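As a warm-up, study this chain.
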Amino acid sequence: MTGVVRGPEQEMVRSSVPSALDGEYSKGSQTLAVKIVRQPKKIALIGAPSSAAAFSVGSEKAPAALRAVGLAEKLQAAGYEVVDYGDCAPRLFADDEEHRRARNLAEIVAGLNDLKTRAELAVKSGALVLVLGGDCAQVIGLLTGARRYYKHINLLWFDRDADLNTPASTPSGRIDGMVVAHIIGKGAPELVRFWSEAPLVREPDVTLYGLERLDPPEQEFLGKSPMRHIYAADIQSKGGSKAAHEALAQVHADAREFVLHLDVDVIAAEEFPAVNVPGSGGLRLDDVRASFIEFVKHKNLLGLDVAQYNPDKDPEGSGAKMLVDLLVEALSARLEALTAPAAEPAAGPEEMSSSETTA
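Now compare it with the structure written out below.
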């Protein structure tokens, strides 16, 4: 793309994985003690074209579709330097009837290893990391890349679904319905141990936002868990912006870095049907936009992923344009918030300049 800075080529990424030479490991931890200088005008773009964890084929085409309608160029026009780390290798949906409780695990893990390597480099650069999915499982790669440098990460899960099933409780075997469970250390060992220090994020450090669909085992789990959760109906009654501010307080955003996951099926199907599992009702686009802007504006946001857009269900491309507009609007608001000059305090009588004094 014209004007977009290229990140490391895919064949070079593996040899560039940060090692102990880049900084010291925290004692007994895989987290590196490296000082990272955040770069408010820089975005690291990564494509994660995967449908391996999804409920149908198609979401692996989302990164290309979002790029095709000019995402990187529009972010540049808004004032960002965009460093493009390219796309991971595609990982495709399959029925995988041999593993009905946790389908396609080998493909999912292979894709996450690819994404983790790119995410580590992107996080270390100090840029805001933007991952274009793909299925919901890709957030595990982003979180793992962030945990390389941050011992504690909070997660804001903006989704219609809790995704708290496990291989023992799943009605489908699709990992997309189990992602949060694996992040908090419950489920298939291949994913629970993907970051060697399980859990990847602690239960009290996760906030579920926008819930509208819950399976009975998920409802039961939330009744006992310290995990915070906010229902779509409560967001509607308060308004997206106010509800988002409350969620940011719950995720302790002012004190700790966090990652944001956006599953676009949180938007009511009446306004955004181009997803794998659309749902009628729930949040209207206006509330999603208002909340999303507040989340993205926050200075302690390390990275975000956008998941579940399915171009196969969007033949005219209107969904891709809508998503790009949403991303550019929110990221433009972030740039304005983070680069605005600090307001100077009003001068008191003792702070008068010499020109205002008399001899």
